[in-house]
Design brief:
The complex is a heterotrimer of chains A (92), B (254) and C (202). Chain B is of the alpha/beta class and 254 residues long. Helices cover 22% and strands 31% of the residues of chain B. Chain B contains 6 helices and 11 strands. In chain C, strands 1, 5, 6, 9, 10 and 11 form a 6-stranded mixed sheet that branches.
Chain lengths: 92, 254, 202
């Protein structure tokens, strides 16, 4: 089975939707993939946005790192594919 | 205001703002720059973008992301929008919207794909089509800040007619010390151009960019397939992947 | 949410149904938008298989040739996507789940649908029976294009389209309901468009 598509953008697309939830920018946060252990910035994730929600996948192994669904009165953020996020914080 | 501009509008709850179209600049037959006036705009950094939301009379609503084309300038926010023929939002923004009309914006967002004027490292900018927009904001910000960071732009574009900011780039390449501008034409080159139309190649990046040991900051923006190709070329040439920042706007952008 | 109305903005939508009754909140579309949560799998039919696993662990397999040898139907159905577009009168060809499940010994109440590429979706077992669902392999008389789920997708048109899993590879029949890909990220467990069951709690 081959996997093919260039129908994705990248984690820069997540900047707005994640800034609704977090007080700091998340595109520079460095995530670690549960599946392959690969590390990289949220901005570098492959994002499939033509879907019922936003699906961010690992650029190395293509597995799902993050899912974000925005309903009218709730947002759901599923991070089970992300082992950790290191988030740059502005100085206090 | 100054503080907010430095942080790029972060540390603030993100909400939708009414944005009134103040001015329109035709860039190409199918693209225009829309200058909005956004009261309370907190400022932004070059490379940041905004989300645009459009709502129809019956409540149907959709949103898209657009890069900001200029450095922070009070309450002004300039977006350059390329019309995509079967697009849903870009035909509205490029054809229907007239000065005085109001849409909704939120932002600025994105803190990763940004250039900071205090950074002295050489910069390589590689644009595919309308991927020039956030890179142009960096070029303009460099001039405004009086930065002496060395900048090189490689701009891949279909035809001469499709170039955004052509006159300004010509002037800046002449007047802005330390800025080089190079073009690659993929469909049709101008009369007398030394190369036949072709895709951006390793040689273009090698000759028009910086050697990897200069440790340049590389910013690549364009359609997904273009960005993939260029990022692979940069890494193959020996650039540190951590210094290669990319922004993809989908198969064609919409 | 209720944003400011943008004068003259209609979006990429067809006429307002022209008297056709649509589920609440839906808009009519003429084209066939492609939604995907990941890269499109290309599954050659010579290695394709469809596997039903019962709650007892019993496996039933069909190769592509075996699927093609089964009697097929040509349903014409309306599609309703949770992203608010509806497409009416679409023509498909496929094998009814009634045919495939005929010899399967099960008392399961639920089904987890699995796809090539890793997608999953859950639904009650009874929603696959009695002429309500197909393994579809032709759309508009043509082989189903990979971007629309080819070589074969599940077609369950009475539920939102995310239940009609593209690139379907099998069903796992279970006693307990478990959430699939979107159901575990905020979307409704059942997804009836006529009751506008989009999100959890709707």
């Amino acid at each position: 089975m081959d996997l093919f598509s260039d129908d994705y953008t990248d984690g820069n697309t997540l900047a707005g939707p994640l800034r609704e939830l977090f007080t700091v920018d998340m595109t520079g946060a460095v995530g670690r993939c549960v599946h392959c252990g690969g590390e990289g910035p949220v901005a570098g994730m492959k994002v499939y946005a033509q879907a019922p929600g936003l699906v961010a996948r690992c650029p190395s192994c293509q597995e799902v790192l993050m899912r974000l669904v925005r309903g009218p009165s709730d947002a759901w953020l599923d991070l089970r594919g992300t082992m950790s996020l290191r988030i740059p914080m502005p100085p206090e | 205001m100054a503080r907010a501009a430095v942080s790029g509008g972060l540390n603030r709850r993100l909400t939708w703002h009414a944005a009134r179209l103040a001015e329109v600049v035709e860039e190409t037959p199918s693209a225009r720059t829309l200058v909005f006036d956004v009261p309370d705009w907190p400022g932004h950094l070059p490379g940041q973008h905004v989300d645009v939301r459009l709502t129809a009379e019956d409540g149907y609503s959709t949103q898209r992301s657009y890069s900001i084309a200029t450095p922070a300038d009070g309450t002004r926010v300039a977006l350059t929008v390329q019309r995509v023929d079967d697009g849903e939002v870009s035909p509205y923004l490029t054809e229907t919207l007239v000065p005085g009309d109001v849409i909704e914006l939120r932002g600025p967002v994105g803190g990763w794909f940004v250039w900071r004027a205090a950074d002295p490292a050489p910069v390589l900018l590689i644009a595919g089509g309308s991927g020039i927009v956030p890179l142009m904001a960096m070029i303009r910000a460099r001039r405004e800040a009086g930065s002496r960071a060395l900048f090189r732009l490689i701009y891949s574009v279909r035809t001469p007619e499709d170039r955004f900011y052509a006159d300004e780039l010509r002037t800046r390449a002449r007047d802005d010390m330390g800025l080089d501008v190079g073009y690659v034409y993929t469909r049709q080159a101008p009369e007398g151009w030394p190369a036949a139309p072709r895709r951006l190649s390793v040689a273009d990046v090698n000759n028009g960019g910086w050697p990897p040991d200069f440790q340049p900051s590389c910013f690549v923006c364009g359609p997904t397939a273009f960005v993939e190709t260029v990022a692979d070329i940069l890494v193959a040439l020996g650039h540190d992947p951590r210094r290669v920042k990319t922004e993809r706007f989908g198969p064609t952008g919409s | 949410m209720g944003g400011i109305v943008s004068p003259g903005f209609r979006g990429r939508r067809g006429a307002e149904g022209g008297g056709v009754k649509l589920p609440p909140g839906q808009y009519l579309t003429e084209d066939f938008p492609v939604l995907t949560a990941g890269p499109t799998p290309r599954v050659p039919t010579d290695t394709w298989e469809f596997v039903v696993v019962t709650e007892a662990g019993e496996k039933h397999r069909w190769s592509w040739a075996e699927l093609m040898a089964l009697p097929s139907e040509q349903p014409t159905v309306d599609l309703h996507c949770v992203t608010k577009w509806s497409k009416l009168g679409t023509s498909w060809q496929g094998v009814s789940l009634d045919v495939l499940l005929d010899g399967v010994d099960t008392a399961a109440d639920y089904v987890m649908v699995h796809s090539y590429g890793g997608y999953t979706t859950n639904l009650p077992f009874e929603d696959l029976r009695n002429g309500q669902a197909w393994i579809a392999y032709k759309f508009d008389g043509e082989d189903l294009h990979p971007e629309h789920g080819g070589p074969a997708r599940l077609l369950v048109p009475h539920l939102y389209l995310w239940k009609s899993a593209k690139w379907v590879r099998g069903l796992r029949l279970t006693d307990e309901d478990e959430p699939g890909f979107w159901e575990s990220a905020g979307y409704h467990d059942y997804g009836d468009p006529w009751r506008e069951q989009r999100y959890q709690g709707d």
